[in-house]
Amino acid sequence: MGNTPFWPESASNWAQGVDALYIFLVLVSVVMCVLIFGAVAFLSVKFRRKPGVQPTAIEGSHFLEITWSVLPMFFFFAFFLGGALIFFHERTPPQDASEIYVVAKQWMWKMEHPEGPREINTLHVPLGKDVKLIMTSMDVIHSFYVPAFRIKQDVLPGRYTIMWFRATQPGTYHLFCAEYCGTQHSGMIGSIIVQPEAEYQTWLNGGSSSVPLAQTGEKAFAELGCASCHRSDTQGRGPLLAGIYGRPVALEDGRSVMVDENYLRESILDPGAKVVAGFRPVMPTFQGIISEEQLAALVAYVKSLTPSSGQAAGAAPAKAEKGPPQMKSGRSR
Ligand SMILES: [Cu+2]
Fold first, then answer.
1. 177 and 31 part of one domain
2. Could you give the strand order of the β-sheet that contains 171-177, starting from the edge strand earlier in sequence?
3. How close is the Cα of 187 to the center of ligand 1, in Å?
4. Residues 194 and 250 in one domain
5. Distance from the CA of 141 to the center of ligand 1, in angstroms?
6. Distance 152 CA to ligand 1 centre (A)
7. Spacing, Cα 154 to ligand 1 middle (Å)
8. Which residues have a Cβ under 8 Å from the Cβ of 93 and sit 6 or more positions away?
9. What pLDDT score does 320 carry?
10. Are residues 218 and 201 in the same domain?
11. pLDDT of residue 59
12. Which of 102, 121, 257, 314 is deepest in the core (most CB within 10 A)?
C-alpha cells in the first residue's frame, strides 16, 4: 500500500493490522451498500404497478428474519474482535520497551528520553525497538497522532496515558495534535524521526543535556525531602520504594492495586487517595510544588529502584551472598 495515493505511509508494527481491519470494514460497507441499493432498484422495477395484478401481502418469515439478523451479526463480531485485539495489544506495552515521557502543552510537545536528552516537537526513536510513551498534558486535552504509525492517543491533564509502538521504517513522519486545543491547535505539529539503532545511539550521545532522567529524579528526591521519610532501611516514616513498580501493593482500606506510572503519580500528588497498608497518611502533597518534568523524573527514579540497587540516601549496595536479594528490601508485600 506504500505508494498508493491518499494512503498514509506504513511505518510501525500497527500499520498492517489497522489497515487490514479498515479495508475489511470498507469492503463490507461497499458490498452491503451495493446489495441494498441494487435490491431497491431491481425490486422497484420488478414489482412496479401493473394493470390487473393485485399485490399480495407477506405476513412474515422466520427464515428471512433469522438469516438477516444472524449473518450481519457475524460481521459485526468480526469488526469488534479485530478492533479489540489491536486495542488490547496496544494498551499492553512490552516489559522491556524503552520509555519516553511526553508532556503536551498549548501548543507544543516536549519529549524526555530516559537517557537525558529532551526535544521539542521532534522525537527521535530507534528503528525496530519497542518504544513506550508515557504522556500527560499541562493544560487541556491534546491527542498524539502519528498517521504513519496508525496510532492516536488522547493526552490528558492530571494523569498518564500510555501507548507503545515499534517503528519499522527509517524516515521522518508527521506528528499531529488530533484534539482541538485552542487557537494554535493547527500549529501543534512535529516530527518523529526513526533512525537505525547505531545512528540513534550517536544522536543520544551527542545531546547536550545528558543527565539521565532517573538521576535528575534522584536529585529531586533528595532536595524535596522525600528521602527523609523514604529511607533505604525500614526505619523511615514512609514505605520502602525499591522494587514496588510493577507489583501489587496492599492498601489500608483492604484493596490491592498495581503500582504503575499512574499509581506513582497519584502517590506523589495526592498521597491520601491510596494509603499503603500499615502506614499513616502523613505524606504531604506535592501538587503545585513540582512540575510535570520533575514528576516524570521522580517517577522514573522510583521505577529505577530495584530491591538490590539500594535506595537514595546513600544505601550500600546489597551483598549478593547473604540471602536472596528481595529480603534486603525489608518489608514484604
Ligand atoms: Cu493540542
1. yes
2. 122-126, 189-195, 171-177, 142-146, 151-155
3. 9
4. no
5. 7
6. 12
7. 9
8. 130, 132, 162, 163, 164
9. 35
10. no
11. 83
12. 102
Task: Please report whether residue 49 resides in a domain.
Answer: no
Distance (angstroms) between ligand 1 centre and the Cα of 203 equals 27
SS3 157: strand
CA 12 to ligand 1 center in whole angstroms: 23
Q: How many angstroms does the Cα of residue 182 sit away from the middle of ligand 1?
A: 7
Burial of 244 (0-12, 13-18, 19+ CB in 10 A): buried
Same domain, 191 and 219: no
**Taking the CB of residue 230, how many other CB atoms lie within 10 A of it?**
21
Contact 198, 127 (CB under 8 A): no
Domain span at residue 271? 213-329
pTM: 0.79
Does the pLDDT of residue 133 top 50, yes or no? Answer: yes
Residue 52 lies in a domain: no
- Segment 25-77, tens digit of pLDDT: 999 999 999 999 999 999 999 888 888 888 788 788 899 899 989 998 998 89
**pLDDT tens column, 181-193:** 999 999 999 999 9
Q: Are residues 238 and 265 in the same domain?
A: yes
